[in-house]
């Protein structure tokens, strides 16, 4: 049985979006599961220069399996950088290929290319593309830096692995998060070995010149915060 995670529902370009504490999100009435930046096989890439355990692909696929089992979507959209490098995707071990094929049984997989995996292998189940449109929302790997508004449609992206540092009464806690302003959303990374970029970094902050909301993911819970309760790194 899949582990239960808390959820928060927000509206993006007028559409309800269920954001899960595991960093995934549900669109189109819960029928479309979106996940970003798996970075599969990052451990294999790093192991060439550092003595680290090669467990990340197993852990990430286990978490993906749990999310799909829990939500049973008709479609899964991967927002790019699903693999840490294109050549690592092409040489993915057979058991992992079979896991992906099994997860895709009875549902559509849509793979967006990322800057780490601009070339995706033919054995992946489903379709590969640069962008994907759904109910007035564009899904892409990297956010478009041009201003957007409701009349132009919403946007969902990944790439930046947003994270925050929250101050509680007991201590400060850092972790991954969603960030959105009702039109543009950047999703957290899903991979076991992915780091993060502070929402105060100019690469993220300049995309949100007005008020934005933070959805902080921690210990199977998700919490809503305005920028004013987020601690900027010193």
Structural domain tally: 1
Low-confidence stretches: none
CATH topology: Purple Acid Phosphatase, chain A, domain 2
Quote the distance from N terminus to C terminus: 41 Å
Radius of gyration, taken over Cα atoms and rounded to an integer in Å: 17 Å
Shape: globular
- The ordered H/E elements are EEEEHHEHHEEEEEEEEEHEE
Average pLDDT rating: 91
Structural class: alpha/beta
State the CATH architecture: 4-Layer Sandwich
Would you write up a description of this structure?
This protein is an alpha/beta fold. It has a single domain (about 5-230), classed as Metallo-dependent phosphatases (Purple Acid Phosphatase, chain A, domain 2), CATH 3.60.21.10. It has five helices and 16 strands. The chain has helices at about 40-45, 55-70, 85-90, 95-105, 200-205; strands at about 5-10, 15-20, 25, 30-35, 75-80, 110, 125-130, 130-135, 135-140, 155, 160-165, 170-180, 185, 195-200, 215-220, 220-225. The strands form two sheets. Strands 8, 9, 10, 11, 12, 13, 14, 15 and 16 form a nine-stranded mixed β-sheet that branches. A seven-stranded mixed β-sheet has the order 1-2-3-4-5-6-7, with no helix packed on it. Strand 12 (about 170-180) and strand 13 (about 185) form a beta hairpin. Helix 2 packs parallel to helix 4 (about 95-105). The longest helix has 16 residues, at about 55-70. The N and C termini lie far apart (about 40 Å).
